[in-house]
TrEMBL record:
It comes from Myxococcus stipitatus (strain DSM 14675 / JCM 12634 / Mx s8). SUPFAM superfamilies: Jann2411-like. Residues 156-198 form the Zinc finger CGNR domain. This is Zinc finger CGNR domain-containing protein.
Length: 203
């Protein structure tokens, strides 16, 4: 009697939603999600979330750029941070209607010019495979170039919450979205306004 082969075990689903293992995915674009890995930019003590190469490897998987956790080098961690900061400054310039920095454009364009990895349909959706961590930087750089140079660039906004530094793409019908997330910063603002009104009424 031939033994039946057991089907391979199902992979555990990746976390989904706006916050995945502490990383925020609220912007609507991969490149701006990378920029959000330095959180609290408008505070006195911004928090670096890509502290180690392992953090970067984990973020790439959670962002659905990598199929599995890799082991970026210290050099690649530094390159990721440099690309991230260039994207952030370019996006801020676009949101303010200012000219792009030539240095930041050069950093972005250098990565965007490299050969991209191949898109693959994986068990959890779209993946990018074939070029390692550097190839995943190419995906992020090209996403930023297409965003900043395309029609959606006019929709880049800065979250109105004072202690939030996130940028996002406003795809609302009115074009008047103020918060990176209604469940996060939007709700915090509503609670703060409610408490302010309560204090005012109590006087």
């Amino acid at each position: 009697m031939v033994a039946r082969q057991r089907p391979p075990p199902l992979q555990a689903p990746l976390p989904s939603g706006e916050i995945r293992e502490g990383f925020k995915f609220r912007s609507g674009r991969l490149s701006l999600d990378l920029a959000s890995t330095l959180s609290g930019r408008r505070t006195e003590a911004p928090k670096e979330q890509l502290r180690t190469p392992a953090d970067l490897g984990r973020w790439l998987v959670l962002a659905r750029v990598a199929a599995q956790v890799q082991e970026p080098s210290d050099e690649e961690l530094g390159q990721a941070r440099e690309l991230r900061e260039a994207i952030y400054r370019l996006a801020m310039s676009r949101a303010r209607g200012e000219s792009f920095s030539a240095r930041d454009r050069a950093i972005l364009n250098r990565w965007a010019a490299e050969a991209p990895p191949a898109p693959q349909l994986g068990p959890r959706g779209l993946l990018w495979a074939g070029a390692g961590v550097r190839g995943q930087f190419v995906v992020l750089a090209r996403d930023a170039a297409e965003l900043l140079g395309g029609p959606l660039a006019e929709n880049i906004r800065h979250c109105a919450q004072e202690d939030c530094g996130l940028l996002f793409v406003d795809t609302s019908r009115s074009g008047l979205r103020r918060w990176c997330s209604m469940a996060g910063c939007g709700n915090k603002a509503k609670v703060a306004e409610f408490r302010r009104r309560q204090r005012s009424d109590a006087r």
